[in-house]
């Protein structure tokens, strides 16, 4: 009997031991999994980076900051700003009359602006400058011809030159670009600060301007017409004949009447102005 009692007691101990283990397993606290990192949309990443990079008038982004913005822009697609290649606008081969450029502003502050330009086929944004500005242009949709110049003597400011006076400029670009392609960058005195866009097919261009145009702050837009260098000489600057095609004479003109743009409301993804 004693033996049987011992076995029973032993079994109870076993059962109790197992029961404790089950209870421990049943009520064991679960460890919390770390939250997945927040993935920012490309447009929001661009906005936040621009807010860090552009420090206001009179400043130019550092090379590392230029690479930072280019890296974001190079990866952006039309869908990132609410566009689709299937839109009827991008399927039109021609429009009646003189095609007009349309623009929409995504965001604008004193230090930078984000905007999109829509160019129907054959539409032109004539030669114009970007005084004191750094501009990133990303061709999102279409095929476009770009011609760009820099002043040979950038120290000779526009304010000291008569609008009718010819100035020598160096041709920096005269090429056709097709989306998707890398972002182009121009600076206050280099990189093709004076450029012209001609749409071969319907195009959409995302522009980042830092700082944006401001007539009050002396950053008004000026327009130009170009003449081949070999057409004549002003008697002051001579360029070797074999290099003549790399230069041109620019003359400031009034804003062409047919270059006025239509503004529309931006209806794509919005940027969120978080506290810095």
Automatic annotation (TrEMBL):
User: What molecular functions are annotated in GO for this chain?
Assistant: cysteine dioxygenase activity; metal ion binding
Q: What is this protein called?
A: cysteine dioxygenase
Query: Does the record carry Oxidoreductase as a key word?
Result: yes
* Cofactors that this protein relies on: Fe(2+)
The EC designation for this entry is 1.13.11.20
Keyword set, alphabetical order = Iron, Metal-binding, Oxidoreductase
Any single biological process term in GO: detection of hypoxia
- UniProt similarity note: Belongs to the cysteine dioxygenase family.
InterPro entries xref list = PCO/ADO, RmlC-like_jellyroll, RmlC_Cupin_sf
Q: Which reaction does it catalyse?
A: L-cysteine + O2 = 3-sulfino-L-alanine + H(+)
Specify the taxonomic lineage.
Eukaryota, Viridiplantae, Streptophyta, Embryophyta, Tracheophyta
| The keyword Iron belongs to this UniProt entry's keyword annotation | yes
């Amino acid at each position: 009997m004693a033996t049987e009692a011992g076995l029973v007691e032993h079994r109870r101990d076993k059962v109790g031991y197992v029961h404790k283990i089950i209870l421990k397993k049943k009520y064991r606290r679960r460890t919390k999994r770390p939250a997945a990192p927040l993935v920012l949309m490309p447009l929001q990443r661009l906005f936040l980076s621009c807010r860090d990079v552009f420090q206001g008038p009179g400043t130019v982004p550092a090379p590392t900051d230029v690479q930072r913005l280019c890296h974001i822009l190079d990866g952006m697609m039309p869908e990132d700003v609410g566009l689709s290649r299937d839109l009827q606008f991008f399927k039109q081969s021609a429009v009646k009359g003189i095609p007009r450029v349309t623009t929409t502003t995504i965001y604008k502050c004193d230090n930078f602006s984000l905007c999109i330009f829509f160019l129907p086929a054959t539409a032109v944004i004539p030669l114009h400058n970007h005084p004191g500005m750094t501009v990133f242009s990303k061709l999102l949709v279409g095929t476009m011809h770009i011609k760009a110049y820099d002043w040979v003597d950038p120290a000779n400011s526009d304010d000291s030159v008569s609008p009718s006076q010819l100035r020598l400029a160096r041709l920096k670009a005269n090429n056709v670009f097709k989306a998707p392609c890398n972002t182009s960058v121009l600076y206050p005195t280099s990189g093709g600060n004076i450029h012209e866009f001609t749409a071969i097919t319907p195009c959409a261009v995302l522009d980042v301007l830092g700082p944006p145009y401001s007539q009050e702050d002396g950053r008004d837009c000026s327009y130009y017409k170009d003449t081949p260098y070999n057409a004549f000489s002003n008697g002051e600057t001579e360029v070797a004949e074999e290099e003549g095609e790399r230069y041109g004479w620019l003359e400031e003109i009034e804003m062409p009447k047919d270059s006025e743009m239509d503004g529309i409301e931006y209806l794509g993804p919005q940027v969120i102005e978080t506290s810095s």
